[in-house]
Amino acid sequence: MSVTAAKGFTAAGIAAGIKENGNPDLALVVNTGPRLAAAGVFTSNRVKAAPVLWSEQVLKGGLVSAVVLNSGGANACTGPQGFQDTHATAEKAAEVLSLNAGEVAVASTGLIGVTLPMDKLLPGVEKAAAELSAHGGEKAAIAIKTTDSVHKTAVVTRDGWTVGGMAKGAGMLAPGLATMLVVLTTDADLDADILDKALRDATRVTFDRVDSDGCMSTNDTVLLLASGAAEVTPEYAEFAEAVREVCDDLGRQLIGDAEGASKDIKVEVVNAASEADAVEVGRSIARNNLLKCALHGEDPNWGRVLSAIGTTSAAFDPNRLNVAINGVWVCKNGSVGEDRDLVDMRYREVVITADLAAGDQTATIWTNDLTADYVHENSAYSS
Amino acid sequence: MSVTAAKGFTAAGIAAGIKENGNPDLALVVNTGPRLAAAGVFTSNRVKAAPVLWSEQVLKGGLVSAVVLNSGGANACTGPQGFQDTHATAEKAAEVLSLNAGEVAVASTGLIGVTLPMDKLLPGVEKAAAELSAHGGEKAAIAIKTTDSVHKTAVVTRDGWTVGGMAKGAGMLAPGLATMLVVLTTDADLDADILDKALRDATRVTFDRVDSDGCMSTNDTVLLLASGAAEVTPEYAEFAEAVREVCDDLGRQLIGDAEGASKDIKVEVVNAASEADAVEVGRSIARNNLLKCALHGEDPNWGRVLSAIGTTSAAFDPNRLNVAINGVWVCKNGSVGEDRDLVDMRYREVVITADLAAGDQTATIWTNDLTADYVHENSAYSS
Question: d(Cα B325, Cα B196) in Å, to the nearest integer?
């Protein structure tokens, strides 16, 4: 499972002491080859954490031998010291693994604005390297958790090759990637350009459409590493589909574990004039705090859906809008439709279908409800 | 006080039975002249309530004799029936006041997607007309309350003339106007064009920068009526300042009474390259749910401020950003600044200053914190 499901990878997850509670907080993933191809997608937030700035440079070469990931501190907004710390982390991994530091990606997650305890992190890298194993994927996935209640992994196996991965993220999930660290691995034999295309095609319709609370992180990182160990080169379409499937699975797990949420909400926008319109409308609905509160209260409040659609620039006629909640068309032609009492709101998953009656394009955005628990989790502690 | 502070206006507020709990729910404001000039600003939501569609037409003439306002139902997303109901309301007021229906503006607030009980509303108009008085401003302000805990009025008096007004709004406060109904009156002798300019200049920097929860209503309406009864024509600058002062006062009252809020948050953006940049950054900070939760928890979490700034397209260098919370510069040059423990978060008002170090333009946005009470108020009942 996880990042070691594909051949040609070892991983480890250990407690380095970065987290004060002693939980696992450092993961290492190593590509043992024969190929060392890689691609990465990073946060579009213009305030980027030091490890993002570092790893963006590393990925430009299309070659990654190892990834060091830590929870317990985001190393964001930490100035020149933060960048030096990331650099030192990569150098340490390179030293103990006999690699070039320019092939070591780094990813961090946790509190913004606090420097990392390097006296614990650097020995941690050494310790993790000593524990690398072809069965270490689960431990690595556990070590990157922050407020996640469970660790997240996914695997898809095709004819002789595999794509697997791990993810962490439980809040600050938003477009331009949710607040997530994701490492995907494959033993398929593919070059960096193909990996890059497959990763971008997949994240655009999966992680980029997970929008738990509208907040965009400074640290989002999604990496895809290929070892070539399966000695198989799949067709692009088949490979891209497998990557998308793994991303979709992990994205769904992120929404299912979002901080304080009691509902997973699938916003389907149909009959839009363009995909961009569908995404804009889906995001507007997904970010409407009043609607998210109503859904938490199991109130199929379609008026708040219309109100959210009305703030967009998408093509639609207000008098032709239709909205279904869990399959009941509670709004027809911009006005009262079927009886809202027919909507069954008891289950965790809620499906909102917004029909713009303006074309044939669609998009799906996933979000969560807004709850007192979310407020509590994000007001009671710094995070 | 309120809409009857200026000479040339009568008003009334009564219980018509639209609200099931028997509270006041219908207000009438009448301009007794000699002048009947008026201007209006309406929601920029493309899903507009029937009374907004009606009143936009009325205001095109620049002449308003009376305004009928009801709480207890928004008459939004009610289809052709909704528009007929608004029309009937204006006709009824015109009949009992011997006016032309085309001079009667209508405004509604309450639940979306439910038609109004016209069998109660129309007799209510008659009853309100019978109670019109030059001292009826307070009662009118009370009758337009929905979840407001207090009614809101403001008055500014200058040399021989007055601008007064009333407002309602407690949630769904957002740009393109907060969810609000506002009626302003003046006895200054000014024509509709001047009123329109003064009203737009004022709302742009007041109501339009009140952003409690990022949700934009289908019903927002701000009207300014001039009676000319003071027989004074002030200079434009002086008049515009008085209108802005009244709008600012009412806007501050709206934020202070926002549903479930425990903090009133002033987001000041300074040293922006343009006013548009300052507004974009201010709104992004004001809408960040994670930050709003942190401030509720009295946590001066500047990392979430930087994270919000980073999602904008404003001109700035991440390494030159400075952030103060209640006057303490907790972030300097994009990194850790003064000790966050110096920030005193005990009071209801919180001031966040974001220094973009990119120019000399500024803007201020007002918002609230995100609380469990907000979630409760908006999930426990339809609204």
Answer: 37
Confidence of residue B259 (pLDDT cuts 50, 70, 90): confident
Read off the pLDDT of residues A226-267 as tens digits, 9 standing for 90 and up: 999 999 999 999 999 999 999 999 999 988 888 788 999 999
Q: Is B70 known as a binding-site position?
A: no
pLDDT, tens digit, for every residue of B296-309?
999 999 999 999 99
Residue from B89, B109, B179, B353 carrying the catalytic annotation: B179
For residue A318, list chain B residues with Cβ-Cβ distance below 8 A: 46-48
Asked if residue B378 belongs to a known ligand binding site, the reply is: yes
B319 touches chain A (CB under 8 A): yes
Q: Do A307 and B374 touch (CB under 8 A)?
A: no
Class of residue B48 by CB neighbours under 10 A (exposed 0-12, middle 13-18, buried 19+):
buried
Task: Return the pLDDT at A146.
Answer: 86
What is the homologous superfamily of the domain B2-256 according to CATH?
L-amino peptidase D-ALA esterase/amidase (3.60.70.12)
Angle, nearest 10°, between helix axes B372-379 and A372-379? 170
Q: Which residues of chain A neighbour B329 with C-beta distances below 8 Å?
A: none
Selected residue with higher pLDDT from B180 and A143: A143
Residue B109 a catalytic site member: no
- Residue A381 has a pLDDT of 57
B76 chain-A contacts, CB cut-off 8 A: 303, 306-307
* Predicted confidence (pLDDT) per residue in B212-258, tens digit: 777 778 889 999 999 999 999 999 999 999 999 999 999 999 888 88
A-chain CB neighbours of B218 within 8 Å are 303, 306-307, 310
| CA–CA min distance B305, chain A (Å) | 10
> How many helices and strands in chain A, by DSSP H and E?
10, 15
> Environment class of residue A237 by beta-carbon count within 10 Å: exposed (0-12), middle (13-18) or buried (19+)?
exposed
The closest alpha carbon to A140, from A149, A148, A152, belongs to A152
Strand pairing category for A181-186 and A162-168: antiparallel
Report the amino acid identity of residue A17: G
Q: What is the pLDDT of residue B170?
A: 63
Q: Domain extents for chain A?
A: 2-256, 264-379
Shortest CA gap A228–chain B (Å) = 37
Size of interface A-B (CB pairs under 8 A): 207
Is the predicted ipTM greater than 0.85, yes or no? yes
Question: Which CATH code for domain A264-379?
Answer: 3.10.20.340
Q: Does the beta-carbon distance from B215 to A304 stay under 8 Å? A: yes
